[in-house]
Design goal:
Blueprint lengths: L1 H51 L13 H21 L4 H9 L5 H5 L1 H14 L2 H21 L4
């Protein structure tokens, strides 16, 4: 019986270490995405400003293709940032990025705040530590039961 418990404890420790490494990697990837989101939000603000610009009443009217070319460049840059972010997806973040559309620049501008809320929840939800605590209590209780006199 003790050999079985020792094997279970060893397996649980290995799982806990792997889970802790995975959690750390996920947190690092999420945090590394924050600068990209800031860039994307700034780009969305620039795109919205360009949409509001009264092109026909400015000296820019002399460059009729400028508006379309600027929009194409900005949209291409935004799509490139979204691709970079797509490679770093985790659960809620994946859903957030899937709902995102460059047609809604206000949503894109608000993305860093939404991302920060996800990061806060991620920091607060420490599933690995909770699970390890429960497992250690279980193992300790089981040891007490199997090692106590009369068992």
């Amino acid at each position: 019986m003790m050999a079985v418990m020792a094997a279970v404890v060893t397996a649980l420790r290995a799982w806990a270490e792997a889970a802790a490494r995975a959690e750390e990697a996920a947190g690092t990837a999420l945090a590394a995405s924050t600068p990209l989101l800031g860039s994307l939000a700034a780009l969305a603000a620039q795109m919205r400003a360009a949409q509001r610009l009264p092109w026909d009443t400015t000296p820019l009217v002399a460059f009729p293709e400028l508006r379309a070319r600027l929009w194409q460049k900005q949209r291409g840059a935004a799509e490139a940032l979204l691709e970079q972010l797509g490679g770093r997806r985790y659960l809620e973040c994946k859903l957030l990025l899937q709902r995102l559309s460059l047609d809604s620049l206000a949503d894109v501008e608000a993305l860093p705040q939404s991302w920060e809320r996800i990061l806060e929840r991620y920091r607060e939800d420490d599933v690995v530590k909770d699970t390890l605590l429960k497992v250690s209590l279980f193992v300790e209780n089981h040891r007490e039961l199997t090692c106590s006199p009369g068992s």
